[in-house]
Amino acid sequence: MRFILLASVYLSSIFSTFAQQIVPVAPLPSPKQIRWQALEYYGFIHFNMNTFTNVEWGEGKESPSNFNPSALDCRQWARIAKAAGMKGLIVTAKHHDGFALYPSKFTTHSVAKSPWKNGKGDVVKELALACKEYGLKLGIYLSPWDRFHPAYGTDEYNKIYAEMQKELLTQYGPIFEFWYDGANGEGPNGKKQVYDWPLFHAMVNKYQPNAVQFSDNGPDIRWVGNERGYNYETSWSPINRDEIYPGYPQFDRYRHGQENGTHWVAPEVDVSIRPGWYYHPKEDNRVKSPDSLMKIYVASVGRNSNLLLNIPVDTRGLIHPNDSASMMGFAELRKKSLINLLQPSSTKIQVSSTFNATYSVKYLSDKDPSSAWAPQVSDAQPSMVITLDHAVHSNTLQLQEPIALGQRIKAFSVEIASENGEKWLIKAKTIGNKRMLTFPERKVKQIRIILEEYRAQPLISNLALYRIISTRNESLFR
Fold it and tell me: Where does the signal peptide begin and end (predicted)?
């Protein structure tokens, strides 16, 4: 009888605890999608035949003899990327012209036919080794479009592309992201290809199950909808994935995601540090400044996206000094700017209600994206009030949701009060993984955040207040 009584008490305790947990709201991200989102910032390496022909899109008629970098050094790429704070590098293993940066057995148009290293070179291998040395993740871009391959436009080509995938997925170690391109034009025979996307996706899932796959509709992460370096003010990670496909002509209808989307497919912002994606000497003095990159970071990572910054490697096979200098300046700005001004010793956070101890107000400042504060279910417009002991110059408020439980916030407002009592109101929409809300610099004494609309019981995992500055140590948001 004593055993039965103790067991009943134990089970009752378990069910009581479970009953007080907040129910996830679908769709939910997979573990690999959550790991990918945590990377936030990584690099794109556009280096291929186009580098040597000085074009953006090759035609597939180029001679492999054109590819002959004089000082290729993937360790330099990785060293600069690491110093810039990037978490990985994605390389263009094959662009639309069909030239492969590795000695594939399934095409005759590759480095194996080039004079570089007498046809014995393998750029992907060298980059994989460099990434491993510098603690970076390796990603692969493999364009399905091929303007060289004679089988393009036939059913056989899908099998050939899948075999090339297998080579890249099995010979170079772990891959964190596989990047498809939505471009789909004619091949050398004048035909277009009907891509076998289920086959392509299955290859990655089979050989690199921890890798996320990128395209207009995922299946794991999606294009943001522009190449200018920003996500939109409203950004839902859920999307109606099965309604669209790579190259979908009406993609603008889906660029914000969908509040009640069927699948979790968070956006990635891809943008080049130069006007073009490939290296062109005439653009050496048109590299984006550190200030511009900082604004891009806020408008991408700060709007529920990851940032994929492209670096066009030059004809030597090196990152140009102008690009490197800008990347280092950007890293320095982040170091100086992203210092949370909401320190526990000088900040008080009050909330309108608390669901229970598991979702306490203390989790708003613990820096853990998986913990969170939650209000009572009956709290119709939950609020947080942040009061600082001393007013601080600031221009950016950051909020996060614990995305493992789904994306919830539809609209919120922020009331900022200065030390003399003057107030400003900001209206905003979604939050997601991270939302950086910028405003003209103020000497802020108090901030009130009101969660006005939400899909399910709201959750906030972290708050931060920043003063984001320019290279001149001035406010970047005026």
Answer: 1-19
**Peptide bond just before 27 cis, omega within 30 deg:** yes
pTM: 0.95
Q: Distance between CA 20 and CA 43 in Å, rounded?
A: 42
Token pair 């070179």 is found at 121
H/E element, 300: helix 290-300
Is the domain of 369 the same as that of 385?
yes
What's the chain's Rg over C-alpha atoms? 25
CATH number at residue 258: 3.20.20.80
Asked if the peptide bond before residue 219 counts as cis, ω within 30 degrees of 0, the response is yes
Q: Where a domain ends, among 337, 368, 390?
A: 337
pLDDT (tens digit per residue) in 245-268 = 998 999 999 999 999 999 999 999
Are 291 and 355 part of one and the same domain? no
Do both 306 and 353 map to the same domain? no
Based on the structure, what is the number of domains in the chain?
Answer: 2
Do 147 and 98 meet the contact criterion of CB atoms below 8 Å apart?
yes
